[in-house]
Amino acid sequence: MATPKDTNNHIIAVIGGSISGSEAAYLLATHNFKIVVFEMNSLPYGKIEDGLPSWHINLRNRQMKAIDSNLSHPNISYVPNTKIGTDFSFEDLLTEWKFSAVILANGAWYDRRLPVEGAEEMCKDCLIYQNPFIYWFNHKHEKDFSGDAVNLKAKIVVIGGGLASLDVVKAVMIEKLGHKIKEKYGKTISPFDIEKKGVAYFLDVYNETLDGLEIDKVNLMYRRGERHMPLKSPKDDSEFEIERAQETSLKMLSKYKEKYLFDILEYTVPVGIEQSEHSLKGIFCKKSQLIDGKLSIIDKSEFLFECDQIISSIGSIPEEIVGLPYEWGGLKMKGEEKYQVYGYDNVFAVGNAVTGRGNIQESKQHGRKMTSKIITEHLSEDALDEWLTNQNEAIHERVQSQVEGIVYEVQKQPAPDIEIQENIDNKVSEIYKTMGFRSYSEWIASKIPERLEDQLQIE
């Protein structure tokens, strides 16, 4: 690809500072562009901090270090606690700030609404979504925790499928066991120990059963069969590889169920709810089936599954920013490369802002060998962390490819004059003055939350 004349005077706004945003910002900074990263939170770590369960300590720390390294580049200004669409409109970035380009890397934080009639009118504790649940799980130990508290009830159904839903199930069972052991024996078990050794292990230690501790198993409701849960991608679309991937998924699920003691309601689709004024009685469900690979609902199969709480884990989508075009849960893009936002010459998107997928995406190149490793090492933290790290590498590779095209497009734009550059610098300086922001490293050090592993002296 021929490259237009390199002006190196462009200033680019990046919305979102986590994996994709920090990578895009860093790559652009190395091309001598000036970058302003707008992050809605104090910290730039996104789902690494708030959406990935806290037992992934090694992965979190590695990714945080990588993000810090990226955002410490001298050509990057990091602007925290600034949400585009709230503090500034998207159009402000183009018309008032007059950035040469805007790159959306704001990820997928908005839980897909549970498509069941009456769900949104349920009482607060009856329906919980995955993102606020994991945020609570990760941060509730903090002295200044100000998020919404979660009151886990007895009979919980998690609706969803895949690794993210399994993490939710694990977190619920970890909470239930830890609470009951503390209540009955006055002993505190580290959630990290329960995650590593399993619920079954500690029942044996205390010579207990779930019934003896009055713990109801969590039920994971999945619209397809267990073998179809997307835990392992096939190498190709051949019948042999699909079957082999399904067998691997079944082995993974078997390990999970053996270790964390939960049930799966396969081929089950929620269609309604049964509730009183202040409580949930159950979920009306229908059975499903696969016919020629297509899911269909079985007529006259409706039944009531009793439960008193639902945790919806059916995926996340980017929160929509007013002024931008969206379709199918993601930004409307143009071109085959899918990095340029439809209707704009200088607005781009990378990572989950494009795909609309909220989970850390799978790297097929590395995922095949890692899935086997996860199984053989009995779902150890190190194996899972390595697998997730390899998935993140796929994101980095995709962002690098997208940035190449973005650089080409930005350099076709007229370079901003000195007044525009000074205006942007002054606006950033005013925000910093209001916040008391002096440097990236100092800010990050002052905002890192109290880690549960530090309280418990976990290595």
Task: Output the structural class.
Answer: alpha/beta
Determine Rg (CA atoms, Å). 24 Å
The dominant shape is: globular
Overall pLDDT score: 87
Strand content: 15-25%
Structural account:
- With 459 residues, the protein is an alpha/beta fold.
- Helix content is 40%, strand content 17%.
- The protein has a 5-stranded parallel β-sheet with strand order 3-2-1-4-20, with helices on both faces. The protein has a 5-stranded parallel β-sheet with strand order 6-14-7-8-9. Strands 10, 11, 12 and 13 form a 4-stranded antiparallel β-sheet that branches.
- α1 packs parallel to α3.
Fold blueprint:
Elements: E1 11-15, H1 19-30, E2 34-38, H2 47-50, H3 57-71, E3 76-79, H4 90-95, E4 101-104, E5 110-111, E6 127-129, H5 130-139, E7 156-160, H6 163-185, H7 191-197, H8 199-205, E8 219-221, H9 239-260, E9 263-265, E10 268-275, E11 280-291, E12 294-297, E13 303-306, E14 309-313, E15 316-317, E16 326-327, E17 330-331, E18 333-334, E19 340-341, E20 347-349, H10 352-355, H11 364-376, H12 381-410, H13 418-435, H14 440-447, H15 452-455
Parallel strand pairs: 1-2, 1-4, 2-3, 4-20, 6-14, 7-8, 7-14, 8-9
Antiparallel strand pairs: 5-15, 10-11, 11-12, 11-13, 16-17, 18-19
